């Protein structure tokens, strides 16, 4: 794949934007999970809290796999999916009950926990039960939300919008840095390519890694947004291919939505990784990571 080129043949504005980004990211920890240290970590869990029993079951199953493989692990699930395609789609248990469930998993499993927030007013409440507040891709430019999340003192994960160039994520980084909270990272989840389709430009991983540690979302990157009669479709068969490429490219962590029965999942089942496929995939990715860092 060639470099950036301008149509006029003059110096490319995008290349200058990339060159102007200064490497300022520093490693930090989220509980026992090192971020940006050179050790690959995993964020994984169901898209949404379907029930307390199911969330705890998934946390336990994934924790067993990651503990066996020595992979630092952060559990993730959403208390509310506010950006579902259809008004009739399942959204989750809500802020208060969802935060209680996530805090229970945090305490009883001894795991760092991540959830996404959609409104500034939710940040302080959610921060009581989780270690990482995630800014959804659609909201990555919302200044008040970014600032409110960072002001809680929790780590913040900002998903790059499908409509945002990787070099433009420096503006989101600037908003986080304005709060004095240095504990943040960025996640690539694909870019819009026409209607109902996403592609991943692997160059974005290196560009954004100049700003902060970078995570690759291997499941939302294979999503077919709103492409299945009111819900999003997906191509999960490409999860291994894209995650292998991302690990070889040097990402700090991986984000995977994992479910024990994707066909019956209440959100994003079409692009989720089946629980049975997590261990062999991680084994493969760890080998690639070791080779890439050898």
Automatic annotation (TrEMBL):
SUPFAM superfamilies: Aldolase. Residues 34-279 form the DAHP synthetase I/KDSA domain. It is found in: Cytoplasm. Keywords: Cytoplasm, Lipopolysaccharide biosynthesis, Transferase. Its EC number is 2.5.1.55. The keyword Transit peptide does not apply. Pathway: Carbohydrate biosynthesis; 3-deoxy-D-manno-octulosonate biosynthesis; 3-deoxy-D-manno-octulosonate from D-ribulose 5-phosphate: step 2/3; Bacterial outer membrane biogenesis; lipopolysaccharide biosynthesis. It is an enzyme of class 2 (transferase). Coiled coil: none annotated. InterPro entries: Aldolase_TIM, DAHP1/KDSA, KDO8P_synthase. It catalyses: D-arabinose 5-phosphate + phosphoenolpyruvate + H2O = 3-deoxy-alpha-D-manno-2-octulosonate-8-phosphate + phosphate. HAMAP family: KDO8P_synth (MF_00056). PANTHER family: PHOSPHO-2-DEHYDRO-3-DEOXYHEPTONATE ALDOLASE (PTHR21057). This is 2-dehydro-3-deoxyphosphooctonate aldolase. The gene is kdsA.
């Amino acid at each position: 794949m060639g470099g950036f080129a301008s149509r006029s043949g003059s110096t490319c504005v995008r290349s200058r934007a990339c060159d102007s980004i200064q490497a300022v990211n520093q490693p930090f920890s989220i509980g026992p999970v090192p971020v940006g240290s050179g050790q690959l970590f995993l964020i994984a869990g169901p898209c949404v809290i379907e029930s307390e029993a199911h969330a705890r079951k998934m946390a336990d199953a994934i924790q067993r796999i990651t503990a066996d493989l020595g992979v630092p692990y952060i559990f993730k699930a959403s208390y509310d999916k506010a950006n579902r395609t259809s008004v009739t789609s399942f959204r989750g248990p809500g802020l208060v009950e969802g935060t209680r469930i996530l805090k229970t998993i945090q305490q009883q499993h001894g795991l760092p926990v991540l959830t996404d927030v959609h409104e500034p007013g939710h940040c302080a409440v959610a921060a009581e039960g989780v270690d990482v507040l995630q800014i959804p891709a659609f909201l990555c430019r919302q200044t008040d939300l970014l600032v409110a999340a960072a002001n809680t003192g929790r780590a913040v994960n900002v998903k790059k919008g499908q409509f945002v160039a990787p070099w433009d994520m420096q503006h989101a980084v600037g908003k986080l840095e304005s709060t004095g909270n240095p504990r943040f990272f960025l996640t690539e989840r694909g870019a819009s390519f026409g209607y109902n389709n996403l592609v991943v430009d692997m160059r974005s991983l290196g560009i954004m890694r100049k700003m902060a540690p970078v995570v690759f979302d291997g499941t939302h990157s294979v999503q077919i947004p709103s492409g299945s009669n009111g819900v999003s479709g997906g191509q999960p068969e490409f999860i291994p291919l894209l995650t292998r490429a991302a690990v070889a490219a040097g990402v700090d962590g991986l984000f995977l939505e994992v479910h024990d029965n994707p066909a019956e999942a209440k959100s994003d089942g079409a692009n989720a990784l089946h629980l049975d496929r997590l261990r062999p995939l991680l084994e493969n990715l760890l080998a690639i990571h070791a080779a890439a860092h050898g």
